[in-house]
TrEMBL record:
Source organism: Rubrobacter tropicus
Protein known as: GNAT family N-acetyltransferase
GO MF, any single term: acyltransferase activity, transferring groups other than amino-acyl groups
Keywords: Transferase
Keyword Transferase on entry: yes
Cross-referenced SUPFAM superfamilies: Acyl-CoA N-acyltransferases (Nat) (SSF55729)
PANTHER family from the UniProt entry: ACETYLTRANSFERASE-RELATED, N-ACETYLTRANSFERASE DOMAIN-CONTAINING PROTEIN
Domain N-acetyltransferase, chain residue ranges per copy: 4-160
CDD domains tied to this protein: NAT_SF
Cited InterPro entries: Acyl_CoA_acyltransferase, GNAT_dom
Organism phylogeny: Bacteria, Bacillati, Actinomycetota, Rubrobacteria, Rubrobacterales
Length: 163
């Protein structure tokens, strides 16, 4: 396994991040729809906000994964945040998700002081659920018919990690 490096995403990463989300399996695990545009990703990565920290994982200079950590803006929920993560199809199962999770949790715990992180994961995403559970996330409930994907409705689990 080659070394995975995680760093903050830069605006010039937009083409590589677009490729991550253009991977069929990676895209199917998100709420996105096929055929996202490079321009949308350029705009997303160009906007610097204190409540959203985009990270990329790369190997030998090639971006292979993306994670966006978002802090809730409401003053009563600023102790918590959520994130979305995707790994390019050809890099799934090779430690990229683990590296992104380690970096995001270090940021959340040691720099942002977050005590709660939550997420939604499709109920049929066994690899994703296993990854989150390894990092202390627990299921809090199931959203029935949460999203429409590939011609059918799919359930999603709400998961959270409390520190």
């Amino acid at each position: 396994m080659r070394e995975v490096v995680v760093r903050r995403a830069e605006p010039e990463d937009y083409k590589a991040v677009h490729l991550v989300y253009s991977s069929p399996n990676a895209m199917a695990g998100t709420l996105g729809i096929p055929f996202s545009s490079e321009e949308d990703w350029r705009e997303e990565l160009s906007g610097r906000r204190d409540d959203n920290v985009p990270l990329v994982a790369y190997v030998r200079g090639e971006v292979v994964g993306h994670l966006a950590l978002m802090v809730y803006a409401n003053p009563r929920t600023r102790h918590s945040g959520h994130f979305g993560i995707a790994v390019r199809d050809d890099w799934q199962g090779k430690g990229v998700g683990t590296a992104l999770m380690e970096a995001a949790l270090d940021l959340a715990d040691n720099w942002l002081g977050l005590t709660r992180l939550d997420l939604c994961v499709y109920a049929d995403n066994a690899a994703g659920i296993a990854l989150y559970e390894r990092f202390g996330f627990e299921r809090e409930g199931t959203h029935r018919r949460f999203a429409f994907r590939n011609g059918e409705y799919v359930d999603a689990h709400a998961m959270a990690r409390l520190k």
